[in-house]
Amino acid sequence: MAEKSETCNHDCESCGENCSTRDFHVNLRKGSAVKKVIGIVSGKGGVGKSLVTSLLACKFNRSGFKTAILDADITGPSIPEAFGLAGERVTGTDEAINPVVTKNGIRIMSMNFLLEHQNDPVIWRGPIIAGAVKQFWTDVVWGDIDFMFVDMPPGTGDVPLTVFQSLPVDGIIVVASPQQLVRVIVEKAVKMAQAMKIPVIGLVENMSYVKCPKCGEEIRVFGESNIEAIAENYSLPVLARIPIEKEMSVAVDNGDIESLNVSYVDAAAALIEKI
């Protein structure tokens, strides 16, 4: 890789050189500061990334940290619903956007806050979607944030690549479910992070089991878990096994996830605090 050119203008995005100091990170708006950025990722949709993102944000918010969520799932956002913010719209100017704030003070930016109707589809090609995510970072007046959680769309395409290159991501958590077919998809997400030199904090398995209300037996609805084998293969910790639980489902459906005070993500939160 070449050294920085003597004619370098420090604008890496418009530069065709492949120098050793190449940096695609984009800056926050003046007056905003985010201390730690944590991505919540998976190679597959429907495994619970938004749930894990929401639980972690609520956990850190309850602990007294200034917390934010950047909803990078542009075409399928679900964060507003979980926090009871469906139908909310952002305020601001042509140059700056104010995030929507939950009742307990979590600052959120999501594509749904920009749509006239929340069920309107976002029919955009990948580069435009990736550009919108970048603008959520640069154009939103985040203020002073201790921990920002980025809810990623599934896969290893434009948006994860944009987030990993443009935002100063301190680490990611990979979310999985117990099915055997998820194993390869989780491994793709881990390998992408490693290729991009983004630290993988650990793995979270969602929908791990259902607990029998009468005897307390843990019933493996989707079969035996593969999470330990994946974790061992990549020398990663298993941070949580989240069950299928009516209380959580009802809270999310009612937009009241901030009322939940569950301990499932405590181990993940402890590791994130140490970063």
Structure description:
- There is one protein chain.
- With 275 residues, the protein is α/β, with parallel strands linked by helices.
- Helices cover 28% and strands 19% of the residues.
- It is built from 8 helices and 12 strands.
- The strands form 3 sheets. The chain has an 8-stranded mixed beta sheet with strand order 5-6-2-7-1-8-9-12, sandwiched between helices. Strands 3-4 form a two-stranded antiparallel ribbon.
- α3 packs parallel to α4.
Mean pLDDT over all positions: 89
Largest sheet: 8 strands, mixed
Structural class: alpha/beta
As a percent range, the share of strand residues is: 15-25%
Strand order of the largest sheet: 5-6-2-7-1-8-9-12
Number of strands: 12
Number of helices: 8
Structure summary:
The protein has 275 residues and is of the alpha/beta class.
